[in-house]
Write a structure and sequence with these properties.
By secondary structure, the protein is α/β, with parallel strands linked by helices. It has one domain: Ribokinase (UDP-N-acetylmuramoyl-L-alanine:D-glutamate ligase), CATH 3.40.1190.20. 37% of the residues lie in helices and 28% in strands. The chain has a nine-stranded mixed β-sheet with strand order 5-4-1-8-9-10-11-12-13, with helices on both faces. Strand 6 and strand 7 form a beta hairpin. Helix 9 packs across helix 10. It is globular, with a radius of gyration of 19 Å.
Length: 327
């Protein structure tokens, strides 16, 4: 693929506007050294050296968009709690528009707390309250998107199945995007498969694709990836990009073209946030003039950079350019 064309597409990321709606999280990492086993129980003792916070899940998608020189509008809910007071300033510091974030007094701000020793994740704590948002919150979210639809270039739905993405919201959102000729890209969850029909593009990983197509028992993912991709593409009337870890990506377009793209990861340290980075880069590439194939290749480079880092991370324009230039 023409490197100069890909680099030009990346240059066009500048000033593009992407609205991200989905499950907002705060990621906390506790870093330390592990050198002994506790005398109290057969568990490792972590000597904590530092703690760090970063936007997670849908907020990480928005953070990646901002890091790639584009403008991100974050839409979702948080709780009225201490985690909110850490997360919102972080988003603002990354120049992310937070006017579409609403406080839900029935839920806490979702947190994922990871304990990391010697660059390896040892343990994770989740703070969350499951259950869908109520009608009032759903209406607030859609009304905000309705006001912004003419201002933005595309919508990303970052669905972690924590309650923000409802069937009614998705139906209205996809109809709105199609009516206004806006790209809508969905990072899906299998339980919401029926919600995504008629979207522009969905990006399941290989495990999600297996669950969404009922091929969970098939051990040979390589053999059945084309069966799954075609099935999803036809059932949902959407383009489909299956991300496959070390096997790269497989793109299934509505024109029946299938493209397999090898991974660009040199070494995998941590897969946390790779999907968020991928969907952010993919969408930016599409609104910057890329074909689906070109967008997938650029997103694959971005994901390859992310998995080479530990913890929730972002990819810069310079890193992305360098990866493409060196391929």
């Amino acid at each position: 693929m023409n490197k100069e064309k890909l680099l030009k597409i990346i240059e066009n990321f500048n000033e593009k506007k992407i609205l991200v709606v989905g499950d907002i999280m705060l990621d906390k990492s506790i870093w330390g050294e592990v050198s002994r086993i506790s005398p109290e129980a057969p568990v490792q003792v972590v000597d904590v050296s530092k703690e760090s916070y970063s936007p997670g899940a849908a907020a990480n998608v928005a953070n990646n968009i901002s890091a790639l020189n584009a403008e991100a509008f974050m839409v979702g809910i948080i709780g009225n709690d201490a985690a909110k007071n850490i997360l919102i300033p972080k988003l603002k510091n990354s120049s992310i528009d937070v006017d579409g974030i609403f406080i839900d007094t029935n839920k806490p701000t979702i947190q994922k707390v990871r304990v990391i020793g010697r660059s390896q994740q040892l343990l994770r704590f989740d703070y969350e309250k499951k259950g869908y948002i109520d009608d009032s919150t759903e209406n607030k979210i859609f009304e905000f998107i309705l006001k912004k639809i003419n201002e933005i270039d595309a919508v990303i739905v970052s669905d972690y199945a924590k309650g923000i993405i409802t069937k009614k919201l998705m139906e209205k959102l996809i109809e709105l995007c199609n009516k206004n000729n806006k790209i809508i890209v969905i990072d899906p969850k299998p339980k919401h498969k029926s919600f995504y029909k008629n979207s522009t593009l969905i990006t399941p990983n290989h495990t999600e694709a297996q669950k969404m197509t009922g091929n969970e028992e098939e051990e040979n993912i390589d053999k059945y990836v084309e069966v799954m991709g075609k099935k999803l593409q036809q059932e949902l009337n959407s383009n489909v990009l299956i991300t496959r870890g070390e096997k790269g990506m497989s793109l299934f377009e509505k024109n029946n073209e299938i493209t397999h793209i090898p991974t660009y990861a040199k070494e995998v340290f941590d897969i946390v946030g790779a999907g968020d980075t991928s969907v952010a880069t993919l969408t930016l590439a599409l609104v910057a003039g890329a074909t689906y194939k070109e967008a997938a290749v650029i997103a694959n480079h971005a994901a390859g950079i992310t998995v080479g880092k530990v913890g929730t991370s972002i990819v810069s324009i310079d890193e992305l350019k360098k990866s493409i230039e060196n391929e």
